Amino acid sequence: MKITNNVSWVGKIDWELRKFHGNEYSTHKGSTYNSYLIKEEKNVIIDTVWKPFAKEYVEKLKKEIDLQKIDYVVANHAEIDHSGALPELMHHIPDVPIYCTKNAVTSLKGHYHKDWNFVPVKTGDTIDVGNGKSLVFVEMTMLHWPDSMASYLTGDNILFSNDAFGQHYASEYMFNDLVDQNELFHECIKYYANILTPFSPFVTKKIHEVLEMKIPINIIATSHGVIWRDNPVQIVEKYLAWANKYQENQITILYDTMWDGTRIMAENIAVGIKKADDKVNIKLFNVSKTDKNDIISEIFKSKTVLLGSPTINKGISVAIAGLLEEIEGLQFKNKKAVAFGSYGWSGESIIKITNALEKSGFAMINKGFKCLWNPDDDSIQQCISLGVEVAKSQ
Ligand code: FEO
């Protein structure tokens, strides 16, 4: 698939993918592994595809170019979804230089135990591809791995951004102006929330660094999902907003429940929030029945999160414990929270949840609210009052 006269997409659309990073990321709409072929006076491959598609990738690539005519390989990122076909490709062209960061050399050697012809590069290093064009390298350290980098093709003004600005979103059309915009941005924000949130300070710094270089960018060719050719700056602006302690006018109530006590509490807290503020977007999710990455997207959009668990063995449910582990790693900023839950004997769940959320940087609105056995009329009123308090504390 042509991107410009001399640049083609030679990647893989993976419609079947439903889980990525093992089981860590849900991909309801599949994904793509984008590899690019630049044919100028020099021929360059930028990134490859995930390992299961290595043979298919190389066979298809042979139809695009005589592999012996490839002059350079660029590995923008060492993670397996982009480097997985390198062993198959390098088997055919073992002496071709691989341009990547110093960290990527370590990482690629760690993954594949091969001593290929690595050429470590730094920000500002270039390779001449002929016809007056060059590839300029820009280190993208911690966006999202230590080895990540982007490559910029002068003349065509294409930024090969690797993971940055991507989405796990399969499409036969592959350009941002040809796909459903709601689907596209839903996948973009999910990708940012789940993968890039902890690296937000690096996102802001790197985007400003690239903007200050004042290089024209006509196309952002990511390594997952569609290629941004229509107003590519729009996704850069979204990233700047998402990196800046992002929140929408949303309060999310997350809970697990054994015999419905904590569910009834959640629903009545929602009644109280709506009573005090009928403009705020209120969403409820049973964490044990909902995809965890979708939940992370909802937390990312929220200004306040209420997290409820019944007390089980002096602790909390496995689903809530797992979510708290995710939350701790993602380091959300600028969010408030409250713990709640029903109990029968001791009622430790709200203390555990409160402590965990505080440790993760959430501003706790109060010490949490627990309800003995199933909520009676009095407890239901207290849940409604809690909802009102939460809405008024914004
Ligand atoms: Fe798409 Fe960090 O790999």
From TrEMBL:
Recorded superkingdom: Bacteria
SUPFAM superfamilies xrefs: Flavoproteins, Metallo-hydrolase/oxidoreductase
InterPro entries associated with the record: Flavodoxin/NO_synth, Flavoprotein-like_sf, Metallo-B-lactamas, ODP_dom, RibonucZ/Hydroxyglut_hydro, Rubredoxin-O_OxRdtase
Lineage: Bacteria, Raymondiibacteriota
Hydrolase is among the record's keywords: yes
Organism this protein belongs to: Candidatus Raymondbacteria bacterium RIFOXYD12_FULL_49_13
Signal peptide: none
Keyword vocabulary terms for this entry: Hydrolase
GO molecular function terms attached to this record: electron transfer activity; FMN binding; hydrolase activity; metal ion binding; oxidoreductase activity
Name assigned to this protein: MBL fold hydrolase
Domain (Flavodoxin-like) ranges: 251-391
Protein family: In the N-terminal section; belongs to the zinc metallo-hydrolase group 3 family.
